[in-house]
């Protein structure tokens, strides 16, 4: 359960860290499943439905940047998405009826080259009818100043939705220099393996290249209140059973709740699809240092992830 102080901090700052949510056994199982999926990148030549690869990946020297949509990659993650400790933390924040979003990911942030994520707001990728939407980061490793921790701009979830476009299309990143966004007050979120972070869907956040000798894997589950329905086709709703099948707590509803919230539509679609890393390739001025690389091009048809 969250303390009153944590609930107040989430509302005010837009993020919190919750300690020791996973047991040692669950954390060990999470690492085992994740290691096995990452190992499947050996011999792979390009991004797949599950694996997003670092630009420097080679089939004989595999480098996984992200495991995409973990809840579809292995039943362990689908079960973990409904973990009682996570549900207990989310209920005071977005209510008791909770849907897992179709996206989600494990950002692998490998030691030495794990990719940065440019500043962005998840809401720019997936606006909903109301903003009871958030992301939970399950820490597979200790996360501190050295290994590319999540960085957040406290209070930015109460501010504007920033421009995430570049060169006439969505790019899933904020050009800090052009927009004048002040990131000097950004905070690093530090925690231990088994802790979770929770950040509001409008929170500005990002993270740097991991140049340390320690990996920093974070599993992000994205959740919405059941009455927050996705806008602008950011999720395909043709299959209502699948949509409602992602209710992880409480009940679904056919009555979306509409809130007066600022929205920018993530269209035209980013020229590079498949992951936020690909989307952000068309950001003109990058904020974070990136690994030097030859890039590979991937185009996909499914939108709506962050
Ligand atoms: O892993 C991180 O540090 C940031 C992740 C993130 O914001 C994203 O992948 O959308």
Q: How would you describe the shape? A: globular
From the N-terminal CA to the C-terminal CA, the straight-line distance is 27 Å
Q: How much helix, percentage-wise, in residues?
A: 10-25%
Q: Compute the number of strand runs.
A: 15
CATH fold category name: Jelly Rolls
| Main sheet properties | 9 strands, antiparallel
Corresponding CATH superfamily: q2cbj1_9rhob like domain
Enumerate the distinct ligands.
2-oxoglutaric acid
Which structural class do you get from the secondary structure elements? alpha+beta
CATH architecture: Sandwich
Number of domains: 1
Strand content: 15-25%
Count of DSSP H/I helices: 9
Unreliable spans are 294-303
Question: What is the gyration radius calculated from CA atoms?
Answer: 18 Å
Mean pLDDT: 94
Q: SSE order in H/E notation?
A: HEHEEHHHEEEHEEEEHEEEEHEH
- CATH first level: Mainly Beta
Summarize the structure.
The chain is an alpha+beta fold and 306 residues long. The chain has 9 helices and 15 strands.
């Amino acid at each position: 359960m969250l303390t009153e102080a944590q609930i107040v901090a989430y509302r005010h700052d837009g993020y919190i860290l919750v300690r020791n949510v996973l047991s040692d056994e669950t954390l060990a199982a999470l690492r085992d499943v994740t290691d096995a999926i990452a190992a499947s990148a050996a011999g792979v030549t390009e991004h797949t439905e599950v694996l997003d690869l670092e630009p420097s990946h080679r089939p004989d020297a595999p480098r996984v940047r992200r495991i995409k949509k973990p809840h579809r990659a292995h039943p362990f993650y689908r079960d973990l998405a409904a973990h009682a400790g996570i549900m207990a933390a989310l209920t005071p924040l977005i209510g008791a009826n909770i849907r897992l979003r179709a996206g989600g990911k494990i950002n692998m942030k490998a030691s030495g080259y794990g990719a940065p994520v440019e500043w962005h707001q998840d809401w720019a990728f997936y606006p909903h009818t109301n903003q009871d939407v958030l992301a939970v980061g399950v820490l597979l490793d200790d996360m501190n100043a050295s290994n590319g921790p999540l960085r957040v701009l406290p209070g930015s979830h109460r501010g504007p939705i920033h421009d995430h476009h570049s060169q006439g299309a969505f790019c899933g990143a904020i050009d800090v220099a052009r927009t004048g966004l002040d990131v000097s007050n950004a905070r690093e979120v530090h925690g231990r393996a088994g802790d979770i972070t929770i950040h509001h869907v409008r929170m500005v956040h990002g993270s740097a290249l991991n140049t340390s000798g320690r990996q920093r894997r974070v599993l992000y589950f994205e959740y919405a209140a059941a009455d927050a329905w996705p806008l602008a086709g950011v999720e395909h709703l043709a299959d209502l059973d699948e949509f409602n099948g992602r209710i992880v707590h409480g009940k679904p509803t056919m009555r979306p709740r509409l809130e007066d919230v600022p929205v920018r539509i993530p269209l035209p679609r980013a020229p590079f699809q498949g992951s936020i890393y690909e989307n952000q390739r068309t950001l003109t001025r990058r904020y974070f240092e990136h690994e030097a690389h030859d890039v590979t091009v991937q185009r996909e048809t499914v939108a709506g992830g962050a």
